[in-house]
Amino acid sequence: MNFEKELLFHPLTSAYSSTFWISLLLAILALAYLLWSFKNKASKTRYTSIFQLLAGFLFLLSIGSAFMTWLTRDKIGPVQIGAEQIEFADKQIKYNEIANAYIHTEKNTSAFNSTLILDTSFFLIIEEIKGRNHIFSREEYDILNMVKEIRDRME
Q1: 74, 77, 88, 137 — which has fewest CB within 10 A?
Q2: 125 in helix, strand or coil?
Q3: Contacts of 35 (CB under 8 A, 6+ apart)
Q4: Is residue 46 scored above 90 in pLDDT?
């Protein structure tokens, strides 16, 4: 086969971007409510302290979610499958350094009934000879075509 052509696989979804902005918006709204409620002493009701507590929790959860999403978003980028190597996230792996490339299926079962499968996740796992593993989710990449191309070029 002719593998002169380089293939580029971009992440499929931009769910991380919407999660980041929604979390950031919730954090700003919660912080705005907290600042307003502490400044405005005249509108104190018997539920004000509970609402302040809930707004504080919402602020912490939202700002944590936005931060973790921002960290994750930077790690998910395009994967370039070339004639000699795979490149992603400033990493380059030559095909002769790959021990195996396969799709792993993870089945999440119910806590009450282990035969009831709630969700199934698929991951492309690239194992290096050195022992490193690189994992790509089906939610973010077209892993079926990726594994086919990688296996064809490994041979």
Answers
A1: 74
A2: strand
A3: none
A4: no
> What pTM did the predictor assign?
0.68
Evaluate whether 135 touches 123 at the Cβ level (below 8 Å): yes
- Contact predicate 93/130, CB 8 Å: no
Distances 53 to 46, 117, 128 between C-alpha atoms, Å: 13, 37, 48
Provide φ and ψ at 80, rounded to 5°: -105, 120
- 3-class DSSP assignment, residue 41: coil
**Among 124, 132, 128, residue whose Cα is nearest residue 95:** 128
Phi-psi group of 142: left, alpha or beta (phi > 0 → left; psi -120 to 50 → alpha; rest → beta): beta
Give the number of other Cβ atoms within 10 Å of residue 95's Cβ.
Answer: 18
- The whole-angstrom distance between residue 103's C-alpha and the CA centroid of its chain comes to 17
Amino acid type, 140: E
- Cβ atoms of 108 and 120 closer than 8 Å: yes
Domain ranges of the chain: 15-75, 88-154
The DSSP-derived string for 14-28 is -HHHHHHHHHHHHHH
pLDDT > 70? residue 15:
no
- What's the token pair of residue 4? 């002169």
In single-letter form, the type of residue at position 88 comes to: F
